[in-house]
Structures are given as C-alpha cells and as structure tokens.
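Journal club prep — side note

Before the paper discussion, L.F. wants everyone to see what a predicted structure for a comparable chain looks like in token form. Sequence:
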Amino acid sequence: MSVVLGYDESPGAARALRIAIEVAAAYGEPLVLVYGAAPPGPTGEEYHAAYDAVRQAGRSGLERALAEAREAGVEAVVEVIDRSPAQALIEAAERHGARVIVVGSWGESPMRGALLGSTPHKLLHLSRVPVLCVPTEE
C-alpha cells in the first residue's frame, strides 16, 4: 500500500505535504508525490513549449517535496502524469494500491468548487480510494 499526495506548490500543498508525510510514516508506507500535467491543446510549437514548461514546473515542486519527505525518513517517489490533476491522482492511487489520497484545499467555498471543478471536489466524487482533503493554514 501507499499514500498518494497531489502536490503543486499551491497554498494548500505545504500543509497537505506535512500531513501526507505523517500518514505515510505512521503506516510505514511509501509516499507517492503526483503532479497532474494535463497538456494544453495538441497543435503547434506553442504546445510543446507550454507542455515542457508545465512538466518542468511540476517536477521542480515535486523535487522539493521529495527532499522534505526523505528528510522525515519517509520513502517517496515522484510521478508527473499527463492527465488532469484529479485523474492523475486516481490513476496513481490505483497503480500504487493507495490507502488514501491526500490533497490540499485553497479554502474555496463548496459552491465554487462544484461550479469550477476543483481537484478535491472531483476526487470526492470520483475516487474509489478515501480522500483526505487538508485545509490551508490560517
């Protein structure tokens, strides 16, 4: 089993990372750090430049999170997946036999999340794995 964390360096991600490390350490399970890098439209030179930039930004953030997990003594791996964040997390959870998916929230209202399709909102409705949604710190 494992603990899967959606990490994107958003305001909610820092606290979610700390909680995910605690959960992984408590269960003695590896932490899978996931960034969903859904590519933009599939044509033109701009596509490749934007695609590469999105993947690199995700990988840079995940490397910092990976260092924090390892410093805490938690085994961790990184995945940049070419899907939307919610779909990337669901796929990683299935592939790694996740006990839980951890995500941070930005403190959006439930109505805004429902209308705009926030990642936590989508996961709560689509995931077969339990989802731990961590609020941002005050």
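L.F.'s comment for the group: The mean pLDDT is 86. Keep this in mind when we get to the figures.
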